[in-house]
Write a structure and sequence with these properties.
The chain is built from 8 helices and 5 strands, in the order βαβαααβαβααβα. By secondary structure, the chain is an alpha/beta fold. The chain has a 5-stranded parallel sheet with strand order 2-3-1-4-5, sandwiched between helices. Bound molecules: shikimate-3-phosphate.
């Protein structure tokens, strides 16, 4: 099976669903954020000490390490900020976009200090959300609306699309 990439805004459930999908299909699950952290340390420290640009370089490096078959991959919300990442994922596998509403995201994330780009200003959060949403939709093979659904529901929806 081709590698499956999950994309979507911070807090859209990519890691939870990815893990579940990997277990259900019996294939390995990888998370690009976790890969960056195990190699370079906490994301918040990378942003603080080296800046977003360094983080984006590490993120792309990890993405490109993942084989083009038999993996489920949860990506960071900013993976679509670089065209080369989108081209890589499109060339190597199938992209599913988990599309959660701004309200749902805001209530899930609260004021999470471990997500440097979530910040504190509501207007900026909305601006980022709206800009990213267009990028996710354009990049994805399939967009799944997630509001009101459990991780199990979403996992089943992806599985049935794959069949
Ligand atoms: C980011 C999202 C985060 C993480 C980093 C940057 C973003 O991942 O990669 O903080 O730019 O949206 P999650 O989507 O898993 O929170």
């Amino acid at each position: 099976m081709k590698t499956i990439y999950l994309i979507g805004f911070m807090g859209s459930g990519k890691s939870t669903v990815g893990k579940m999908l990997g277990e259900q299909l019996g294939i390995p699950f990888l998370d690009t954020d976790q890969m960056v952290e195990s190699e370079y340390g906490p994301i918040s420290a990378i942003f603080r000490d080296k800046g977003e640009k360094a983080f984006r370089t590490y993120e792309t490096e990890m993405l490109k390490r993942i084989p083009d078959n038999n993996h489920i991959v949860s990506t960071g919300g900013g993976i679509v900020e670089q065209e080369q990442n989108i081209a890589f994922m499109n060339g190597n596998g199938i992209i599913f976009h988990l599309n959660a509403s701004m309200n749902e995201i805001a209530s899930r994330l609260g004021n999470d200090p471990n997500r440097p780009l979530w910040g504190t200003n509501y207007a900026e959060r909305v601006r980022l959300y709206n800009r990213r949403k267009e990028l996710y939709i354009a990049a994805a093979d399939v967009t799944i609306l997630t509001d009101g659904k459990t991780a199990q529901n979403i996992t089943e929806e992806i599985s049935s699309q794959l069949r």
